[in-house]
Amino acid sequence: MLKILGKASSINVRKVLWCCDELGLPFVREDWGSGYRATDTAAFLALNPNAMVPVIDDDGFVLWESNSIIRYLASQYGDGAIYPVAARERARVDQWMDWQATELNNAWRYAFMALVRQSPLHRDEREIAASIASWSRHIGILERQLAVTGGYVAGEHFTLADIPIGLSVNRWYATPLPHPDYPAVAEYFERLGAREGFARHGRNGIA
């Protein structure tokens, strides 16, 4: 059976858990990370030299990096419904997943660490303001995309891209900062809320 290493509160672990729900894929999960088993041990570093969760072990196949993990799971166990086989359709999904992992994540990191994690290393008011502005600007990019598709980030139907994007939108709403009026994003958030996997692992009170 698939084994997932990582605490359930981690946003990146939650990507994997939600993906498994969408695929109807059984798994066992072990708590690793801050507050649980340490990831800087030799045993864990042999699985992931970055000492980060999540890591999966799928019958001896070990993989890290959350977006790579969910791509693998959808390819290995899915039917193409959430991760298309056709090259152009798949590329559109990958485009938004990569955007989330790079542009969007970099935008919110400082503000989130300051406002939610209360990190003593993130107290520069100018940096906080700049991060909030960048975060809102990037959510504005998503707003325009959703206004075009009328449904989900990569098109009319739910895809793998909506897992990292949906969790990022949840984090945006859960962070105490001014939220511009983005009606398409708000409708998208409600649409995702109807999915059991998102209710369990996304819109569950955890940022």
UniProtKB/TrEMBL annotation:
<dbReference type="InterPro" id="IPR036249">
    <property type="entry name" value="Thioredoxin-like_sf"/>
</dbReference>
<feature type="domain" description="GST N-terminal">
    <location>
        <begin position="1"/>
        <end position="81"/>
    </location>
</feature>
<dbReference type="InterPro" id="IPR004046">
    <property type="entry name" value="GST_C"/>
</dbReference>
<dbReference type="InterPro" id="IPR040079">
    <property type="entry name" value="Glutathione_S-Trfase"/>
</dbReference>
<protein>
    <submittedName>
        <fullName>Putative glutathione S-transferase-like protein</fullName>
    </submittedName>
</protein>
<dbReference type="InterPro" id="IPR036282">
    <property type="entry name" value="Glutathione-S-Trfase_C_sf"/>
</dbReference>
<dbReference type="Pfam" id="PF13409">
    <property type="entry name" value="GST_N_2"/>
</dbReference>
<dbReference type="Pfam" id="PF00043">
    <property type="entry name" value="GST_C"/>
</dbReference>
<keyword id="KW-0808">Transferase</keyword>
<dbReference type="InterPro" id="IPR010987">
    <property type="entry name" value="Glutathione-S-Trfase_C-like"/>
</dbReference>
<dbReference type="GO" id="GO:0016740">
    <property type="term" value="F:transferase activity"/>
</dbReference>
<dbReference type="InterPro" id="IPR004045">
    <property type="entry name" value="Glutathione_S-Trfase_N"/>
</dbReference>
<comment type="similarity">
    <text>Belongs to the GST superfamily.</text>
</comment>
<feature type="domain" description="GST C-terminal">
    <location>
        <begin position="86"/>
        <end position="207"/>
    </location>
</feature>
